[in-house]
Amino acid sequence: MLPEDDEPWQRRMLDPSGEAVLNWNRIFLFTSLVALFVDPLYFYLHSVNPTNDVSSCIKLDQSLNTSVTLLRTMTDLFYLLHMAVKFRTAYVAPSSRIFGRGELVTDPKKIARRYLRSDFVVDLVAALPLPQIVIWIIIPAIRSSNEDHNNNALVLIVLFQYVPRLYVIFPLSHEIIKASGVVTKTAWGGAAYNLLLYMLASHVLGASWYLLSIERQATCWKSACKEEQSFHNASQCHSRYLDCDYSDQGLRQLWAATTQVFSRCNASDDSITFQFGIFQNALTTGALSEAFLKKYLYCLWWGLQNLSSYGQSLSTTTFIGETSFAILIAIVGLVLFAHLIGNMQVNLLTVDDCEAGGVETEEEDTEEWMEHRQLPRDLRERVRRFIQYIWVVTEGVDEESILRSLPADLRRDIKLHLCLDLVRRVPFFSQMDDQLLDAICERLVSFLRTEGTCIIREGDPSSTTDGGRTGFFNSITLRRGDFCGEELLVWALLPRSDANLPLSTRTVKTLTEVEGFALRAEDLKFVANQFRRLHSKKLQHTFRFYSHHWRSWATCFIQSAWRRFKRRRLARDLIDMNRRSPRPRHLISGSGRQGGGKDHRIARFPSFPPLPAAEYRRSNSSATRG
To answer: Where is this region: Disordered (predicted)?
Structure first.
C-alpha cells in the first residue's frame, strides 16, 4: 500500500493494485478494443462509384471520413489519459518482491524515469493522430500536385500504428489478471472477450480485403489506361479521370464515352486477360459500390468465413501480394482459432468438468457455505474481499504447505532468505545478533489482512506479536517496521511467567491492506528460554524505546514531572514577589497590635485563578508519587 494517505490528490500516487487503477485499466481495455475496431474503418473510405452504365470512378466518402476521424480522435484522448495515469501510478520495486507484493515506489521522478525507459515510446506512437494528419493534410496536398489516387500512405500509417495499439492490450490484460485474477468478472464475460478478439481479426482481414480489392480494380484501370495512351487517341486516358472529383469535366465525359478501359477491367467478363483472383468476388457482387453498412457486413462475413476455414476456399493467382495475403489468412486463422477454442474451454467448460469430476473450486465452496449458513451481505462481502486479496497476493500458491513439505535445513535457509532482511528493518530486532535472528526467522509466520480487519481487541489474550511490513494500523498509527503485541514479549521475558497469556492493552485495527509477519506465543517463549541474550539490558532498553506502551507511560511521566515543575516555580515566584513588595504604612504605624501582642501583617498578593478540583487532585497525587 501507499505509505502516505494524507497527501493532496494532486500529489497522490496511485496504487497499481488498487480499485481505481483496476477500474481504469478495464475502461481503457474496452477503449483500446474500440480503437482497434475503428482504425480499419479507414480502409472503407474509398468506393467504386458508377458514373453511368459503362464508366466508373473511385470516390472518397467524406461523411464516413468525418465520422471515423471523430471516433479516432476520441480514442486518442483515452490513450493520452492512460499515459497521464501511468505517470501517476506507483510500481513495485523489483528488489522487494521476495515478500508478498513488494514495496511501492512513489517517487514521481523515479516513476517517470522508469516509464520513459519502458513503454513510453510505444504509448506515444499509439496515441499520435497520424491517420487524421494523413487524411486531412498530406493526401490533399499530394493529390493536388500529383493528381494520382494512392492510398499507400494511409495504409502504411494505419498499419504502423496498429501494431503498438495491438501490443498495448496484452500487458494491459496481464495487469488486470494480476490485480483481480481475471479480465472479466464472469465466465461468460471471458468467453465474450476471447470471441471479440476473434471477431477483431475477422474485421481487420475483411477491411484489408476490401481495400486490396479497390487497389486491384485501380491497378487494372491504370494498366489499361497506359495501353490506351500508347495508341495516341484524340481523347487520351489520364489517371486523374479515374477520380470522381474529375467526373464532371467535359474531356473526362468525352473520354468515358469512347474508352475501352472499363470494359477490359470488367470482373464479370470471363474473356478479359486481367485476373482478379481472390478479389473477384468483391467486384462481381458490387460490394465496392454499396452503402457502408452493407459492404462492411459483407467484408466482415468474408473475413470470418476465410479465417475459420484457414483460407482453404481461396483461389489465388500468381500475384505475389495476393498469395502473401492468402498465406497470412491461413496462419492467423490457425493460431487464433486454436487460441479461441482453448480460452473458451477454460472459461466455459471448467464448471462442467469440475462437476463431472466431483471437484469444486474453493470460491464455489465458500459461496455455497455462506449461502447455507445465511450470512448477511456485509459478512459475505468481507469474505469475498479477503479471498480475492489472498489470491492476488499469493497467486493461488500456499507457501506454508510448500515449506512444511521441505527438509528442515532447506526450510530454514528459505526462511532466512525471505525474512532476514525484513526482520532487520524492525528497529527492535536490528539490535539482535545473527543467531538470535535466525531462530526468530525460522518461526515467523506471514499474515495478510484486508482493510478494516481487527487484529486484536483490548482485553483479549495476546497470542501473537505482529510486525507490520506494509499498510497501517489504527490507534497510534503503526507504519512499516512497527509492531504490536509487545505485552506478549514482556510476558515471554519473565523468568517465571504463568501459562495464562497476557491481555492486550489496546485494540488494533487495519486502516489499509496489511502484509506482515507474526511470532506465536509458544515460539516467542521458546526463543526467550533458549537464548538468554534476549534478556540483556541493551535489548530491554531498545524494546522500551520502541514500545508504544512504554512511550505512553513515559509521556505521562514527563507530563506529571512538568506539572510539578510548573507548580514549584509558581510557588517560588509567589515567595519572591512577597519579599520584594513593600508593606503599607497604615500597617507599620503601630495600630496593628491586637490581642496577644502579635503583629498581624496583611500582604497583597496578585490573584490567581484556582486550579480545578480534578487538576488539583491529579497534581497532588503526582507530587506524592514524585
So the answer is: 581-626
Cα separation of 490 and 46, whole Å? 83
3-class secondary-structure state, position 396: coil
Decide: 58 and 242 in contact? Cβ < 8 Å.
Answer: yes
- 493/541 Cα distance (integer angstroms): 13
Distance, CA of 392 to CA of 175 (rounded, Å):
11
Between CA 465 and CA 488 the distance in angstroms is 7
Measured CA to CA, the distance from residue 6 to residue 543 in angstroms comes to: 29
Contact 474, 508 (CB under 8 A): yes
Give the C-alpha separation, 458 to 131, whole Å: 65
Judge contact between 12 and 166, C-beta under 8 A: no
The per-residue pLDDT of the chain, averaged, comes to 76
- Considering only CA atoms, which of 446, 448, 451 is closest in space to residue 472? 451
Cell triple for residue 564?
510539578
For residues 184 and 29, is the Cβ–Cβ distance under 8 A? no
**Helix residue spans in 547-596 (DSSP H):** 548-580, 585-588
Are 488 and 467 in contact, with CB atoms under 8 Å apart? no
- Is the pLDDT reported for residue 615 higher than 60? no
> Over the stretch 447-485, which tens digit does the pLDDT of each residue have?
777 777 787 777 777 666 665 555 444 445 566 656 676
What is the Cα–Cα distance from 592 to 280, expressed in whole angstroms?
A: 136
Q: Which residues pair with 467 in a beta bridge?
A: 483, 517
Cα–Cα dist 448/456, whole Å: 14
Confidence band of 78 (pLDDT split at 50, 70, 90): very high
Please answer whether residues 168 and 30 qualify as being in contact, where contact means their C-beta atoms are separated by less than 8 angstroms: no
Q: What is the pTM of this model?
A: 0.64
Is 49 a residue whose pLDDT tops 70?
Answer: yes
Cα torsion 209, 210, 213, 219: sign: negative
Count of residues for the chain? Answer: 626
Helix (H) or strand (E) run with residue 58 in it: strand 56-60
> Which run of H or of E encompasses 91?
strand 91-92
| Residue 411, all three cell numbers | 526450510
Decide if 40 contacts 211 (C-beta within 8 A). Answer: no
Q: How far is CA 35 from the centre of its chain?
A: 20
pLDDT confidence band for 360 (50 / 70 / 90): very low
Domain coordinates in residue numbering, the chain = 1-183, 187-218+226-235+250-359, 362-394, 399-546, 551-574+612-626
What pLDDT sits at residue 612? Answer: 43
Whether 499 contacts 461, CB under 8 Å: no
CB 462 within 8 A of CB 398: no
DSSP 8-state class, residue 450:
-
Residue 296 has pLDDT above 90, yes or no: yes
Dist. CA 63–CA 45, nearest whole Å: 9
Query: Residue 254 is placed in which grid cell?
Result: 468525352
Residues in contact with 97: Cβ distance below 8 Å, sequence separation at least 6, in sequence order: none
Contacts of 382 (CB under 8 A, 6+ apart): 450, 452
Domain 399-546 adopts which CATH fold? Jelly Rolls (2.60.120)
Residues β-bridged to residue 105: 91
Residue 506 has pLDDT above 60, yes or no: yes
Q: How far apart are the first and last CA of the chain?
A: 45
Residue bearing cell 500500500: 1
421: nearest Cα among 103, 90, 91, 1: 103
The residue that leads in pLDDT, 169 or 600, is 169
Nearest of 171, 160, 155 to residue 45 by alpha carbon: 155
Q: pLDDT tens digits for 91-121?
A: 877 766 655 556 778 888 989 999 999 889 9
